[in-house]
Specification:
Elements: E1 4-5, E2 12-25, E3 28-39, E4 45-46, H1 50-67, H2 72-81, H3 86-93, H4 99-105, H5 112-123, H6 125-134, H7 140-167, H8 174-196
Antiparallel strand pairs: 1-2, 2-3, 3-4
Helix pairs in contact: 3-6, 5-6, 6-8, 7-8
């Protein structure tokens, strides 16, 4: 490989090298293998082309691991779970434009506070739907997914209520099970939906 000219000292001594790079964050360190350009005359380090992107991805991944943050792939899976768009997530989290996009591409790690909030959204579709509506997000696919999640939850709740009624010696009256389930479900989720509206 032909050496390139150094932008710092002007010598024709710049070569591509792979070397350890230490990432420091909150008193923790991680070492990544970094591909970069190094001038053997003055020691100047620079990055070109794909090296820049690879460096940013590796540093962000190291930070995510050190801080115990969700990975870029996990962020995408959470968004996809509810059929939300990247711009929807930005509105829901009140972040700037392209913030979620950078997180999901892996180049920029989210904050610990944002990560905790995203985990809460991932675990609670009712919270996700309330945030979506409160942010004014209009997304028919997401609304359909939330409706499907609610239908599934109602079916599970009804089966549990009916099983409990049978265990307590009540007749397997499907109507009673549906009524009891509807009232219980509305008490838990309906009340929260009404507050968000």
């Amino acid at each position: 490989m032909t050496a390139e000219r150094c932008l710092e000292c002007g010598e024709t001594a710049v070569e591509e090298r792979v070397a350890p790079f230490v990432v420091e964050r909150g008193g923790k360190t991680a070492t990544i293998q970094d591909r970069r350009m190094v001038c053997s005359a003055c020691g100047n380090v620079s990055y070109r082309g794909a090296q820049v992107s690879a460096h940013e991805l590796a540093v962000a991944e190291a930070v995510r691991e050190m801080d115990g943050l969700l990975s870029a792939r996990e962020l995408a899976a959470i968004r996809d779970k509810y059929r939300l768009k990247q711009t929807d997530m930005e509105q829901m989290l009140s972040t700037g434009p392209k913030t979620w996009t950078r997180w999901e591409r892996g180049k920029v790690p989210q904050s610990k506070a944002a990560d905790r909030f995203i985990r809460a959204i991932a675990g609670d579709p009712y919270l996700a739907r309330r945030l979506m509506r409160a942010a004014g997000v209009v997304n028919a696919e997401a609304e359909a997914m939330f409706a499907e999640i609610e239908r599934d939850a109602r079916r599970v709740a009804e089966a549990m209520v009916r099983a409990e009624l049978r265990q307590q010696g009540f007749l397997d009256d499907e109507r009673v099970g549906r009524i009891a389930t509807a009232k219980a479900f509305e008490a838990v989720h309906g009340g929260m939906e009404a507050k968000a509206a």
